[in-house]
Amino acid sequence: MQDHQPLLDSFPSFTRMIQVPYVGNSEGLAILWDDAVFELDDISTIEQEIHAMVKLFQMDMVMKLGATNAVVIFTKSSCCISHSIETLIRSFGANPTIYELDTHPNGKQMEKALIELGCQPSVPAIFIGKELVGGANEIMSLNVRGKLKQLLIRANAIWV
């Protein structure tokens, strides 16, 4: 059995990889992930399946972080557009949770997940009311149309 454990160890939600018996004399692999067991049938595609699961884990991690507060912004410390969006949202009285990808230990994985979720560029990425709203263009468009404040109110990020 090829050792894929180092790849799995880089993602805390993966518990471990184990060998499991199949019908007949063959053996397969299974990955334990958040109390779920994923069987990997074809030994030749194990690495591809692991990478697919890693992508799912990364996107799940970002979506869970995006749901931790009424407003969550994924940014980079050097991004002036991200700073402007944060300032705009704070001007309504909201207190967003900020994740700076360039300083966060899992920042690179989170950035890849944001790209997979459709954020181009990856920052800023803004969640309001546990939903991915998008990036700076979407936030500015909502603001120009007078809809950003209402979205923040519906998300309980601000009160009037």
Topology readout:
Blueprint lengths: L4 H5 L4 E8 L5 E7 L2 E5 L5 H21 L4 E5 L4 H12 L5 E4 L6 H10 L8 E4 L2 E4 L1 H9 L3 H7 L6
Helix pairs in contact: 2-4
CATH homologous superfamily (4th level) name of the largest domain: Glutaredoxin
Terminal CA distance reads 61 Å
Which percent band covers the strand fraction?
15-25%
Please tell me the overall pLDDT: 81
Shape by Cα distribution:
elongated
Radius of gyration based on Cα positions: 20 Å
What spatial order of strands do you see in the largest sheet? 5-4-6-7
Q: Helix fraction?
A: 40-55%
Main beta-sheet annotation: 4 strands, mixed
How many structural domains can be distinguished in the coordinates? 2
H/E series: HEEEHEHEHEEHH
Give me the number of helical elements. 6
Number of strands: 7
Uncertain parts = 11-18
CATH class descriptor name of the largest domain: Alpha Beta
Secondary-structure-based class equals alpha+beta
CATH topology of the largest domain: Glutaredoxin
Task: Provide the CATH architecture of the largest domain.
Answer: 3-Layer(aba) Sandwich
